[in-house]
Structure formats: C-alpha cells, structure tokens
C-alpha cells in the first residue's frame, strides 16, 4: 500500500480554516522589527504549519501533516540568528521488504538570516526582507536533509525472497536455498 493512501489525511484538511487568517496562510512568517531595533535581544517562536512537497526517495512527510518549528531568534549586527529544532513526521517503505515504516525527524538547526544584498553580503544566510523573516525555507531544508535515505521496518528486517518474493519476516519460503557457486563446486567434488 502506498503511504499516500493512509486514511488519516482527510480529517485535518476538512477542518482547517479557509481564507481570512493571514497567519494561517503563512504560518512561518515572523515579524522581526522590534527584534532588529534592539540588538542582542532574543525571542522564542513556536510555529506549526503544513509545508508541501517534503519528500525523498521512498519517504514522504504525509500530506496535511504539520511541521513544527521550535526556535530562538536573536538579533546581531548583521541580521538574525535562528537556533532550535524542527520536527516532522514521515512515512515510507522499508528498503528490504517494502513494508510500511513511519517515524519522526527532529533536526537541530543553527542558521542566520541577513538582509538581501546587505553590505556584508552574508552568502550562507537565508534572506531577510524588510522586517519579515520566513522560517519556512529553513524548516523545509532541515526536514529534507534529515529524512532517512534507506528506512528499515526493523533493524533485523529479513527482506524478501529474491526467487518467489515471499516476505521472510513472516517465515521461510519453500524455495531451495541459494547456493554460492564456489561451494557448489566443492559439493560436486564431494558427491559421488
Ligand atoms: Zn522490512
Ligand atoms: Zn522463496
């Protein structure tokens, strides 16, 4: 079964408020005018929101599942530093048996936001436009980098039989054991 066929997704979509609330439309947008005016000040922000298109090979953040950003913003002369964690659920397929796997990523982030085209030219920073700072690209990057490349349903997953496709986690199949050709040469010497 595809992870997208999960029955949990429609409920949240149906109950979400539509239109009107600008903060709901851009849940990761933070106003930082006061923070920038007083250098060295700090503010804690916890934001939740859906970020579309978070997927890697065989792993996806389910549609409608919110990403949580739990971050501390601090102003410094060149911009704003952002430190904390981002959290997102994921579902995927086991690399060995193809069975469903689920988990949560919770990467730690330590990034900077700096004015676009600023004098200092902080190339590694996320853009700070005016007094608005968008945490969404930061959260997106952090989750994408942290999604597992080859998830397993369990560390000891036995995988599928390469001959009949049976799931060996459910028990052995009837296929003859695959014999390493180097040993079969020895067997033929031994057999009469
Ligand atoms: Zn597995
Ligand atoms: Zn088999």
Q: Helices and strands in order, then pairings?
A:
Blueprint: H1 9-15, H2 22-25, E1 29-31, H3 33-37, E2 42-49, E3 55-56, E4 59-60, E5 67-76, E6 79-93, E7 100-105, E8 108-115, E9 126-128, E10 132-134, H4 136-146, H5 181-190
Parallel strand pairs: 8-9
Antiparallel strand pairs: 1-10, 2-5, 3-4, 4-6, 5-6, 6-7, 6-8
This protein binds zinc ion (2 copies).
One zinc ion binds at residues 161, 163-164, 166, 173, 175.
Structural summary, described in words:
With 192 residues, the chain is of the alpha+beta class. It folds into two domains: 3-156, no CATH class; 158-192, no CATH class. Helix content is 19%, strand content 31%. The strands form two sheets. Strands 2, 3, 4, 5, 6, 7, 8 and 9 form an eight-stranded mixed β-sheet that branches. Strands 1-10 form a two-stranded antiparallel ribbon. A hairpin with a 2-residue loop joins strand 3 and strand 4. The chain binds zinc ion (ZN) (2 copies).
Task: Give the strand content.
Answer: 25-35%
Order of helices and strands: HHEHEEEEEEEEEHH
Give me the secondary-structure category. alpha+beta
Shape: elongated
What is the terminal-to-terminal distance? 50 Å
The major beta sheet can be summarized as:
8 strands, mixed
Number of helices: 5
């Amino acid at each position: 079964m595809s992870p997208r066929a999960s029955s949990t997704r429609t409920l949240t979509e149906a109950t979400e408020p539509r239109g009107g609330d600008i903060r709901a439309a851009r849940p990761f947008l933070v106003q930082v005018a006061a923070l920038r005016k007083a250098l060295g000040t700090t503010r804690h922000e916890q934001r939740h929101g859906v970020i579309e298109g978070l997927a890697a090979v065989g792993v996806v953040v389910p549609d409608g599942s919110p990403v949580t950003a739990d971050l501390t913003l601090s102003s410094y002369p060149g911009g704003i530093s952002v430190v904390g964690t981002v959290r997102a659920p994921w579902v995927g397929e086991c690399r060995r048996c193809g069975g469903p796997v689920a988990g949560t990523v919770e990467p730690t982030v330590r990034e900077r936001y700096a004015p676009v085209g600023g004098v200092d030219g902080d190339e590694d920073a996320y853009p700070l436009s005016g007094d608005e700072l968008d945490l969404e690209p930061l959260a997106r990057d952090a989750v994408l980098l942290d999604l597992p490349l080859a998830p397993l349903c369990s560390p000891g997953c036995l995988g599928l039989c390469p001959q009949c496709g049976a799931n060996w986690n459910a028990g052995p199949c009837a296929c003859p054991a695959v014999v390493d050709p180097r040993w079969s040469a020895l067997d033929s010497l031994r057999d009469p």
